[in-house]
Amino acid sequence: MAVRRATALAVALFVFGFGEELWFRYVPEYLRTLGASAFVVGLYGTAKDFLDAAYAYPGGVLSDALGTRRTLLTVGMASTAGFVVYLLWPSVGGVFAGLPLVMAWASLGLPATFALIGEELRGAGRVRGFTVQAVLKRIPIVLAPPVGGMLLEQFGLRSGMRIGFAASIVLSIAMLAGLSRGLRRPGSGPEIPATKRSARAASLPPALRTLLVADCLVRLCEGLPDVFLVVWAIEVVRVSPAQFGLLTSVLMGTAILSYAPAAALAGRTNRKPFVVLTYVFFTVYPLAVLASRSFVHLLGAFAIGGLREIGEPSRKSLIVDLAEATARGRTVGLYYMARGFSVAGAAAIGGVLWTIRPALTFWVAAALGSAGTLWAAFFLPARRAVEKGPLTMNGG
What we know:
Helices cover about 80% and strands about 0% of the residues. By secondary structure, the protein is an all-alpha fold. α8 (about 125-155) runs antiparallel to α9 (about 155-180).
């Protein structure tokens, strides 16, 4: 049963992710083509970050109250509706109007994904579980952006994006059909909502709050230049959309290759060094992009960007370890809501800095990343994986 449910989630992550990644990373340049200014592009990034934050805790409540299956199906249908809006309304207004729906799978569904892995594994096994989850989410990011880039070159930015939206709709419908069957529990009755077992509100313990502070600073570092990476690459360095797709593949390919050895070491030792190391790469990445003046330079910079993920499974397993089992979805949602609201304005600030001087966006990002790295290095307690063995499957 557990293997089947995990496999269903894995397939869903891959299929949905492949469709979305055909076009997702080109949206800032798509907005520019539709006539948006740098400030509006930054506003798009801020709206995305704000929704990511606003959806996190409600997503946790849904996961605890409805169970993972019903939650994931609901948010998957919402995102599919958002792709329909993007296809039928090709304008700046359409991008902003469809965004609340498009973000549902990634943001409302995140706590349910964490809860499912938390129910299956403990201790070092959770690091491995989050490693598998991270790899399966990122393989589409390796494969799809180059395909999307070729579509944009072949059919033009506007028509190529609409083809991508149509592909997302088809793949999402297929994903929902498979997920509905794969997460069903035959003969075991309905899922048991976690809120039936514990009505106590979720809270963040001190160690989790310490991690949250560092995470907020580092995510500000990421958020300031994030939506402008494609603009820098295409408009400043003058790479093609297909080349940018290859850069994205290099970034995610590097991330995938780093996961397994880092997870194995973190499971045997402790997780703090890997969390700190990933923050170091977050800090260096914007400076590496800023220094790039050719496609070859950007290849190296995006490889550094891929190494930002080296400690992600360790960080995620820490969050789950510290969350109460009967309120896991809500605790994860609370953590990501707090982090999301803290960084929601980053892209808009990045847009303001970009209008002053593009390089300023990258320098301020690196300064914030340095602060977050130092905070984690000095104040985050080391934590070993001490729990062993699988949990009993007792709910959604």
